[in-house]
From TrEMBL:
Keywords tagged on the record: Membrane, Transmembrane, Transmembrane helix
Recorded superkingdom: Bacteria
Transmembrane segments: 20-39
Protein name, as recorded: Flp pilus assembly protein TadG
Length: 178
């Protein structure tokens, strides 16, 4: 009986069947994590690029639309119409516009005005329409949920209590005279 067990254990130790399973089991989580991080980075890049481009186009429209006073909702609608890769844009985008005095410089607030996903309605906190020849800072903050929050990249993104990550785009412009 003991001889049978010894022979079986010896054959098991010397056998090479299934030797690929161990490296496969060790490398698979790493490869899946890299693949998910690649997808997450691609989606993040597309969203950020769309937000930047839409904000730039909207700022150009504001600069050239002399004499037109835009409301936050009109600017938000303009950005969302141009950014197709931002789902639920009208509800997840918050705009902040402040005037910058170049002669008596005061640093704009470092914290970005984003929506509070815990509230049903986020009030518009900072939005100054500006006047002719005034330098304006327009910041757009879009919140979204990462595709895979457990991936290597997704787990490093800063999120709020509801799991949303913020993308911020900033632009400056001067109101042209009428």
């Amino acid at each position: 009986m003991i001889g049978f067990i010894k022979n079986t254990l010896r054959r098991f130790r010397n056998g090479e069947e299934g030797s690929v399973v161990v490296p496969f089991a060790l490398w698979t989580p790493l490869m899946v994590g890299i693949a998910l991080s690649t997808i997450e980075m691609g989606a993040l890049t597309i969203r950020q690029t769309q937000l930047e481009r839409a904000l730039d186009q909207t700022i150009r429209e504001v600069k050239l639309g002399t004499g037109t006073a835009y409301t936050p909702e009109q600017l938000k609608q303009s950005i969302c119409d141009r950014a197709n890769a931002l789902p639920d844009c009208m509800n997840k985008l918050q705009l902040e516009m402040v005037g910058l005095d170049m002669r008596a410089w005061v640093q704009p607030p470092a914290t970005v005005d984003c929506i509070d996903t815990a509230l049903e309605v986020t009030p518009q906190r900072t939005f100054e329409a500006g006047r002719e020849h005034e330098m304006m800072l327009l910041r757009a903050c879009y919140k979204y949920r990462p595709i895979s929050p457990t991936s290597y990249l997704g787990s490093t993104l800063q999120t709020d209590a509801q799991g949303y990550t913020a993308l911020v785009s900033t632009g400056t412009f001067v109101h042209e005279p009428q």
